[in-house]
Amino acid sequence: MSVNESLARNCYHPAESSHLTLRESLSEEQSALLEKICPAGLFQRDASARVKVHFQGCLECGCCRLIAGDDALAAWGYPPSGSGISLRFG
Questions:
Q1: Which of 23, 66, 78, 89 is the most exposed place for a label (fewest CB within 10 A)?
Q2: CB proximity list for 71: less than 8 A, separation 6 or greater
Q3: Residue 61 near residue 22 (C-beta atoms within 8 A)
Q4: What is the DSSP code (8-state) at residue 36?
Q5: pTM (2 decimals)?
Q6: Does residue 86 register a pLDDT over 80?
Q7: CA distance 51 to 42
Q8: Which has more confidence, 24 or 82?
Q9: Per residue in 25-61, pLDDT tens?
Q10: CB-CB contact of 62 with 37 (8 Å)
């Protein structure tokens, strides 16, 4: 089973607001790391080349916080109870 097939089996219950908040001033290095490291591909550049986070598909793995550093994210936490990802194994 491919990674995409495996991810497609998960069930997402997105919260109404993001549990991830980026800092206003990210360095180019931090922006590139966030784009590369997220296994769900949530960090993408918009038309003005600013990195935006699409939190709805978050795997809650913490890679963004660990790799890009705490100074890249203004806030990181788990979604509220009942929201987030439900992993489906098999």
A1: 89
A2: 23, 30
A3: no
A4: H
A5: 0.75
A6: no
A7: 10
A8: 24
A9: 888 999 999 999 998 899 999 999 899 988 888 888 8
A10: no
Q: How far is CA 49 from the centre of its chain?
A: 18
Q: How far apart are CA 61 and CA 72, in angstroms?
A: 16
- The alpha carbon of residue 66 and the mean position of all alpha carbons in its chain are separated, in whole angstroms, by 12
Q: How far apart are CA 43 and CA 36, in angstroms?
A: 8
Q: State the average pLDDT for the chain.
A: 84
Structure tokens at 34: 């966030």
> Confidence class of residue 90 from pLDDT cuts 50, 70 and 90?
low
Q: Which two structure tokens, joined as six digits, stand for 7?
A: 């991810």
* Residue in the structure block whose two tokens are 């194994």: 89
pLDDT value of position 7 = 72
For residue 55, CA distances in Å to 2, 38, 49 come to 22, 11, 18
